[in-house]
Amino acid sequence: MDNLVETKRIVPWMEKRAVYPGFFDPITNGHVDIILRGLRLFEKIVVAVLKNPQKKALFSTKDRVTMIQEIFTHQPAIEVKAFDGLLVDFVRRQKARIVIRGLRAVSDFEYELQMALMNRQLDPEIETLYMMPSVNYSFLNSGVVKEVFALGGSVAGLVPKIVEKKLREKLKQGRLSVGKLPQ
Ligand code: PNS
C-alpha cells in the first residue's frame, strides 16, 4: 500500500473551496470559463492573482484583481485575492486543499506537470485538479490577446468587456505596443 495516496485525512469542509491561481495579465474568457466550471464542483473559489514584481506585467496587481472582481460582482462564491510567495502556503492560508488549473492543449502539459508535482513535493496534502476549457477558448492566452489588440485586431468575445475597456485605455496611454509587451 506504500505508493497509494492517503485518503483518510480528507476533512470534508476543506473540499468546499478551491484556489484558482494565475498571473491574469489580463484575465481572458478562457480563465472565466474555467472559474465557472469550477463552481460546478466547489462552493467557493478563491481566484489567486500572482503579485510578482520580477515578472513584467501590463496591468498592475491591483488592476488585475479589480478587473476580476468586477467580472464576478454578482457571484458571491468567487473571491479574488493577490498573493506572493509559494502557492501552497497561500492555499493553506485559505484553508483549501485543491488547486484548479486549466489545461488547453498538450503543449501546456509539461509545465503543468512540473508545477503540480513541485507543489505536491512541497505539500502532499494539496491536490491539483485540471479542467479543460471550452474548445472556443482552447487557443487563447493573455499574451496572444495583448498582441492581437496591440496590432488592431478584435478580441471581442475572447475577453470580458471590462478587459477590452482597460486594454483600450492602455492603448491610448501608449502602454500597449508590440515589442514591449509582457507575455
Ligand atoms: O498564469 P500562470 O503564469 O500560468 O500562473 C502561474 C502561477 C501563478 C500559478 C505559478 O507561477 C505559481 O504558483 N507561482 C507562485 C510561486 C510558487 O509557488 N512556485 C512553485 C510552484 S512551480
Can you describe what's shown?
The N and C termini lie far apart (44 Å). The protein has 183 residues and is of the alpha/beta class. The site of 4'-phosphopantetheine has 9 residues, from β1 and α4.
Task: Quickly give the structural class.
Answer: alpha/beta
Strand content bin:
15-25%
SSE string, helix = H, strand = E? EHEHEHEHEHH
What form results from the Cα inertia axes? globular
The Rg value, from CA coordinates, equals 17 Å
Q: What fraction, in percent, of the residue positions are helical? A: 25-40%
Report the end-to-end length measured between terminal Cα atoms.
44 Å
Strand order of the largest sheet: 3-2-1-4-5
What ions, cofactors and ligands are bound?
A: 4'-phosphopantetheine
Contiguous uncertain segments of 5+ residues = none
E-strand count: 5
Q: Work out the helix count.
A: 6
What's the story with the biggest beta sheet? 5 strands, parallel
Mean pLDDT: 91
Q: TL;DR of this structure?
A:
The chain has 183 residues and is α/β, with parallel strands linked by helices.
Blueprint (SSEs and pairs):
Blueprint: E1 17-22, H1 29-38, E2 44-50, H2 61-71, E3 78-83, H3 87-93, E4 98-102, H4 106-122, E5 127-131, H5 142-150, H6 161-172
Parallel strand pairs: 1-2, 1-4, 2-3, 4-5
The protein binds 4'-phosphopantetheine.
